[in-house]
Amino acid sequence: MQPPFHAVSIVMIEDDEGHARLIERNIRRAGVNNEIVPFRDGTSALEFLFGADGSGEVSGRRHLLILLDLNLPDMTGIDILERIKANPHTKRSPVVVLTTTDDSREIQRCYDLGANVYITKPVNYEGFSNAIRQLGLFFSVIQVPEIP
Amino acid sequence: MISTGYNPALVALSLAIAVLASYTALDFGGRVRDGGARLRWAWLVGAALAMGGGIWSMHFVGMLAFEMGLPAAYDLGRTLLSLLIAVAVTGAALAWVGRRQAARWDVLVAGPIMGIGVAAMHYTGMAAMRMPGNLAYSLPIVALSVGIAVLAATVALWLTFRPTGIWQRFAAALVMGVAVAGMHYTGMAAATITAEESGAHSAHLAATSVDQQNLALYVAGVTFVILFLAMLASAFDQQRIQGELRASEERFRAAVAAVRGVLWTNDPQGRMTGEQPGWAALTGQTRAEYQNYGWADAVHPDDRQPSVEAWNATVAGRSTFVHEHRVRARDGLWRHFSIRAVPVFDGHGAIREWVGVHTDITEQREAEAELRESNEEIQRYAYIVSHDLRAPLVNVMGFTSELEAVREELQTLLRDHPQGARINDDIAESLGFIQAAIIKMERLIAAILKLSREGRRRFDPEPLAMTHLVRGIADAQRHQADRKGATVSVAEELPEIVADRLAVEQVFGNLIDNALKYLDPARPGTVEVTASPAPGNRIRFAVSDNGRGIPPQDHGRIFELFRRSGAQDQPGEGIGLASVKALVRALGGRIEVSSQPGAGTTFIVTLPRGPVTDRSAAITHCPTRCPWPRSDHAAALPCRQHRDDRG
Fold it and tell me: Nearest CA to CA, how far is A145 from chain B (Å)?
């Protein structure tokens, strides 16, 4: 593992347990061994990202990479994306939107809001595992800024 | 020369007869034009009898009022003849003027005929007089009497066929009666009677005079009775007409109420005047409030100005007013109304008033809005369902593939096991079925998603040169056509329409693709695209082929999702025509198929020439229940509200 990536935690916000497991397996297969912090709903993810006071200071010294599903039971991933990109402590964390939706307007909207990567989960498993593995390779070269 | 005089009582009686007869004739004459075909003749005969008989009886009584000091007798034949002349001439004149197609100047024809006839009656009556003396006439006075007769008859006829009130009719009858009597007495003044044996009959004078008076009274009495009966008949008819009028008015009010309408009237200048019970009941406005343009205060502020402008334009153009606006009802709620108003013309083509009806279409509008919402909801469901179905599919597919990997590992491990090959094959077969099912399911979900997206797409109408557009599509499919040895011909002069380019391209692309797909290998394929105008400013496009055809029982099915017809020998999901149908409907058109198996198929797409404005409004319109944060985002985000039940 490259040293700069070593401290990075992958925050996986994904309500579907099966998807979460498949994503994790394939990331690991790509040789990425970083900590994966899974959340199955928006509320708990937001609490982790912004702390109990909602200020976001809690993420101040973290190196985070966020894997975000859009279809969550309690809110849409768009809401979370918006808050991440609006908060000074989290706005520089890369956000990878990983979802089943391939609607062009939704993709546009996510990039408008500051998403760094948008990936559609292919139903075809080969495509799916390929995408995740490549994402893992991408993770291993990406520079995640330290949040002041 | 005999000194003559008049019995004043009989003169007065004759005058009374003339007036009463005139009134009766006027009353009857007024009914000639209004009555039905059969009644018309009855009223005409009645009017002729009343007028002719009345004039005659006035004349006869007037003769009897004449005291010339000579015993006079009357020749029955000639007297009756004079009566007949009076009735016939009056009847003819009334019939002439009473024709439905009669013009106003027709009285100038009928009047003189009747006047001359009355004069003829008078002088025939004079000639019927048998007396011991000679009659001589002063020609100028005779001419004067004829002139008076013509004038009186013309005026009488003119008055008869003019709509008048009871007092006007009474005055007219008075004038006419006096004129008729005037004619008679002028005619009498023209006569000079010379006795043959002066004084010889003076002794009989008193007796004769009494006879004459009695005769006059008989005639007058009979006349009065006849006229009285006539008036009675007229009164009954009046009652019948009023009853019919009341029934018709009640029917009219009921009809207006039945269409949930509110009736109102405006003056010729388009101002609301007078009592408007319907409008007052609807809006709660008082007469002072709605007067002139006060009604506009009850109209929704957004609709007020356009309504007044449209109304003024209609009044200026004297056309039919068709409009819609919201009105604040008495209870303070806004209700939608569809309005139609028409000018009511008088006999001279001038507008007498405007009559309008406000029809309450609130429920219709609400139902439309509800339908639109439920349509949108169905589309949202389709979208959500197809999305959410995909997520578990990713799992099934994913873990099946994981199992596949495990199977390979197992295969290595079980290589030496006696059951190894069987176990491996069982697992492989099961996994194969699961994967095939998932692939199929994914295709179906993708199809639903595609359809629902097409229904939600915002249409962007633009002018489309259809020949060029359809040729472009045909060129794109040339490779496919050439491979099958088929030709696609597009008519030279397809009309231009205004519609969404992509949608129209998809419609015709699908239809031409289908035509090429399902050709009959037994003959060279031809596909033709033609167009013809259709009612309602629409164009009827036809895509015809000579392919294998579609059996009649499948004509409805082929437009359903995932349904296909005939031998399943061509690749496809069965979504093409379902999608075409959805698109055509979204374009405001309709699609039909006619086909004969083994002969060919024609798809007929009827599209409006212009863009469908309210349809695109319906697509972009975001109802208050819309759960999405923004309407411009409508197509992108699935609706979360419906997913509360998820963990």
Answer: 31
